[in-house]
Design goal:
heterodimer; A: 115 residues; mainly beta; 4-stranded antiparallel sheet; 0% helix; globular; B: 113 residues; 6-stranded mixed sheet; 5-stranded antiparallel sheet
Chain lengths: 115, 113
């Protein structure tokens, strides 16, 4: 079974530039998450989708971050304009449904460095 | 604010010893608890989850949960160098309807050959 796919794996941009990350969840997984993991910290949830609807985006800095999941499969996370503090790994994850007991599987992550 | 606290370590144990990793959480309504392992530069992978008070064993790993004390731990028996990684404690946010995990900062474990 293919895992959660993410691209690009690595990106270096200057502050105030924009960047977009793509995620393809495990086939059949209805729930998709974007987490931000800053070096030395645990992952922090940015946004959760159930199919193509947003379940929770309370921790998403909406002035610069946006995410969409058109057609309920792939998802894109965009940052515009980027700040130095956005340097982190952006982890996409998916689970079969949003119910307790469903394992959340993580992708390899997209590493962002803002200089 | 709902928080998950872990000692960041590093925790160093000799090969073959028992490694004990601890985690406390602030939300009394938390219902399920997870341990993820994260190798350097890799994504988190699930080791174990536990829902009920007491112990749950899976091979060399034992998860322990005490909801009254808001405490969850992971024991790794017969530690191997390949167990060297960061261990993330995660808690399912209460208020269901949406299944989310809140993570601690992780404890870095080093198993010395």
């Amino acid at each position: 079974e293919a895992g959660v796919a993410q691209s690009p794996r690595y990106k270096i941009i200057e502050k105030r530039q924009s960047v977009a990350f793509w995620c393809n969840p495990i086939s059949g997984h209805a729930t998709l998450y974007w987490y931000q993991q800053i070096l030395g910290q645990g992952p922090k949830l940015l946004i959760q989708f159930q199919n193509n609807g947003v379940v929770d985006d309370s921790q998403l800095p909406k002035d610069r971050f946006s995410a969409e999941r058109l057609k309920g499969v792939d998802s894109t996370l965009k940052i515009q304009p980027a700040k130095l503090e956005d340097s982190a790994v952006y982890l996409c994850a998916s689970s079969l449904t949003a119910g307790t007991g469903n394992t959340i599987y993580f992708g390899e992550g997209s590493w962002l460095t803002v200089v | 604010q709902k928080e998950v606290e872990q000692n960041s370590g590093p925790l160093s144990v000799p090969e073959g010893a028992i490694a004990s990793l601890n985690c406390t959480y602030s939300d009394r309504g938390s219902q399920s608890f997870f341990w993820y392992r994260q190798y350097s530069g890799k994504s988190p992978e699930l080791i174990m989850f536990i829902y009920s008070n007491g112990d749950k064993e899976d091979g060399r790993f034992t998860a322990q949960l005490n909801k009254a004390s808001q405490y969850v731990s992971l024991l790794i028996r017969d530690s191997q160098p390949s167990d060297s990684a960061t261990y993330l404690c995660a808690v399912n946010r209460s208020g269901a309807g949406s299944y989310q995990l809140t993570f601690g900062k992780g404890t870095k474990l080093s198993v010395i050959p």
